[in-house]
Known about the structure:
Number of strands: 15
Organism: Streptomyces sp. Y1
Distance between the termini: 63 Å
Protein name: RNA pseudouridylate synthase
Largest sheet: 11 strands, mixed
Structural class: alpha+beta
GO biological process, one term: enzyme-directed rRNA pseudouridine synthesis
Pfam families: PseudoU_synth_2
Low-confidence stretches: none
Number of helices: 7
Helix content: 10-25%
InterPro entries: PsdUridine_synth_cat_dom_sf, PsdUridine_synth_RsuA/RluA, RluA_PseudoU_synthase
Amino acid sequence: MRRKSRRPTSPLPQRHGVDPAHLRLPIEGDWPTVRAYLVERLPAVGAERIDEALAGREIVGEHGPIAPEEPFLPGAHLWFYRDLPEEVHVPFELVVLHRDEHLVVVDKPHFLATTPRGRHVAETALSRLRHGLDLPALSPAHRLDRLTAGLAMFVVRPEDRGAYQTLFRDRRVRKEYRAVAGYDPALELPRTVRSHIVKERGVIAAREIDAPPNSESRIELLERRAGLAHYRLLPHSGRTHQLRLHMSGLGLPILGDPVYPEVLPEPAPDDFRRPLQLLASAVEFTDPLTGRERRFESRRSLAAWTDPRAWAAGPA
């Protein structure tokens, strides 16, 4: 079996914490120039922008910038900076709670994506941390939804990433969440919810189907007042939107949820009112590299519980 060749190190540094795009030319092909291949391969970019990038020496190979008339070289590696989408700045602080040679643990605000995806690229926790902490090789140990606030873990060195990601894959991280939702006196709590969750690519909402359970969440009532309640949620699996779906299934959709029980029209990118009242409040695990017991706790609170009138009104 032919071994996959190792990708060369990019000659371009990250920009604003974002890696340059990498492209390898095909081994076979009859394009006369690199430009001809790029125009065919990247129609969304367009010939005009490709010509501009080549003239500006913005597309580079292993030995330097690619000239506009550079002959096609099978298997060659190219790098260039993507034209990033216009992004609205998320005006909330990303707090670093812990940093050592292996791990960075942060307290993420609502509305900030964890990693670049779709229209969120530079305005993500990963890009901010890579740039702000000067850690270009930083990578996520897991993923926290953009709308959920709280604890997110990142790995400093690429060689350590597998050890920490395996903790999450094997369910050896004890996670605790807090949520604010309605109160139902007829609902007996605590209780454990189990269901089979399916999340289809390109579909916003996950759904539950009649099949053997692949998800499990424990729901506990902490406090209640004025028709609302403060809950502790303990997921024993990590399905997409699991806690939001399980709470909605109990008739207790989390306040501020734009997807469950009903997908609402997407708000404007700069609408930061009434965030989802879900917080990743604590994580606990045995460090796979040091053997130490670790516990981290969020310093954030849920506005719908601490100041419900202000949360309902939204920012002035």
